[in-house]
TrEMBL record, chains A, B:
InterPro entries: Aldolase_TIM, NMO. This is Probable nitronate monooxygenase. Its cofactor is FMN. GO terms for molecular function: nitronate monooxygenase activity.
Amino acid sequence: MTLSTKLTELLGIDFPIIQAGMAGGTTTPSLVSAVCNAGGLGTLGAGYMSPLQMREAIKEIRQHTNRPFAVNLFIPEPIDEQALSKVQRVNQVMKKFRDQLGIVESQITKFTESFEDQLEVVLEEKVPIFSFTFGIPSTEILQALKRNQTIIIGTATTVNEAIELEARGVDAIVGQGSEAGGHRGTFGGEFEDSLIGTMALIPQMVDHVKVPVIASGGIMDGRGLLASLALGAEGVQMGTAFLTCPESGAHAEHKRAILGSNEQSTVLTRSFSGKPARGIKNKFISEMEQHAEIIPSYPVQNALSKDIRSAAGKQNQTDCMSLWAGQGVRLSKSKTAEEIVRDVVNQTIDLLGKIQSRN
Amino acid sequence: MTLSTKLTELLGIDFPIIQAGMAGGTTTPSLVSAVCNAGGLGTLGAGYMSPLQMREAIKEIRQHTNRPFAVNLFIPEPIDEQALSKVQRVNQVMKKFRDQLGIVESQITKFTESFEDQLEVVLEEKVPIFSFTFGIPSTEILQALKRNQTIIIGTATTVNEAIELEARGVDAIVGQGSEAGGHRGTFGGEFEDSLIGTMALIPQMVDHVKVPVIASGGIMDGRGLLASLALGAEGVQMGTAFLTCPESGAHAEHKRAILGSNEQSTVLTRSFSGKPARGIKNKFISEMEQHAEIIPSYPVQNALSKDIRSAAGKQNQTDCMSLWAGQGVRLSKSKTAEEIVRDVVNQTIDLLGKIQSRN
């Protein structure tokens, strides 16, 4: 049994399991290559990486695996004037956290890395698979990727977004259900109208596009993979499940928080980045949510809160860290990436046999 | 192939498919008995029915089927003083809708039917299966049901609620994911903390209880049933899928609205009943949500808005009707109950074979 699907054929991998491109240092070259070597698709979450960091990470991934891997980037959004007008007020609210951490407000030199420079690395390195979220790259970029024979995977939270991605020529689509941890990929409307549970989202999406759909959101084990295949997906993307691996670069306290959480622990918040994302509730979220109307939109708030998140990490203060996690969090285990891929595959095959045999 | 599970054995049915006990006239004896005769479990949604109406409906169900059926009731909640203090203000806000419909505020004689009287009918009629939501009945009631050999099914939206239901002796548990249409069954905490997508909820729930778990929320076809079995559920409960059947008593405009909706059409709202419920967005919801803080809690608001919903129904004004629906709504079809049960079963078996054969 190989669990081969249209997705495994498209990507040249053994099992239809993608490790999500979680940004912020979680997806170390060690994690990415371990997933690839186990037969899945590892993804470098490069959204916050400089071009130089990306180049080094890609080099290191290639040193550890000769299998296909993916790089994930964030599609840039224009910086909104209104967001800039909120900077002073939100910094006043965040002063208490900086005081608590013993830091002073950092000078912001840029709100994000340059997407063009990041993309240049993807093109120059001839990355085998490019995945993205928060929007759709320009036609020129998509054409350049295609000339490179890079396989392109977009992210959709609604059927209409999936239809738009397919029309623009992507090779596969991640359908992100409301259970998913981290940032919402919504780009075609309001995020509140795009919180569709994975069970409902996937069959509706596969009915409207021809390219393979990859289910994400709440998928943690073989039960989730088999369920996703049943719904019509050609594979799964799992983030939280890989976050607690020893190979993951997530903060030790983040891993601990995940392993101690349950399905009710997470919340959607704009507090950290200005863009809705799912993470484990903490003091920073609960206090900032009281000032929701003055939190600047992404990427402004993301840049502003960076010093706080960074200092909190150094001081092991989970109160002020962004503890991204999905709603499947109670199923988290501390296993290696290889064990996760193997166990998901074995459990899927085992379950399939069990359901089949009792009928 | 029979798709037999622990649930089909427990309930004495052929297929692990339960038609949800939607209240408000949707679950006609004709719908309930058609589902039972097709091999599933039909449920009379009796939450808003008088004891006399219940008795007549049960009699009619028995005239049309000799198979097991279920009756669903709402566990009563104390009427909150604060809710009563909001009556005048919310009626002021709702005046514009009454004016539009050409009606005047009705005199409220009671907020709900008497649960004790409703339950008396369940006991006297020796209903084969009793399901409930919004809480847990008293131990005396549970014991009386057990003495009657009535099988008892509770509703949980979190793992902790499922654990509590099992400890109190229920025979099976509906795990209600955030995709589900109609009222949230949350009773063990805040509803905002209990909106777990079905894909994430079911495996976490089955890991913590021994009784069969029934998946609900976003399940519309064989893909949803097979996915639910993969997640560890022993069956599914489907509401929206049966609402558009010709046998359903839902308003023709409600059915039409469902058949014309997509996965982004629904929203959770307290507007109609004071308790969060998922339905298709309309003018009543959008206007009332602007006054969310003065909407009395359930069952007060439910009683207050009844005249508006009733007049809107008579006048075919979907603007003021409660158009309950789940997030799987784009998959709705206008098929008979028998066709739905048969198609779900055949699709499930077919899918299972397809997934198996390609491996």
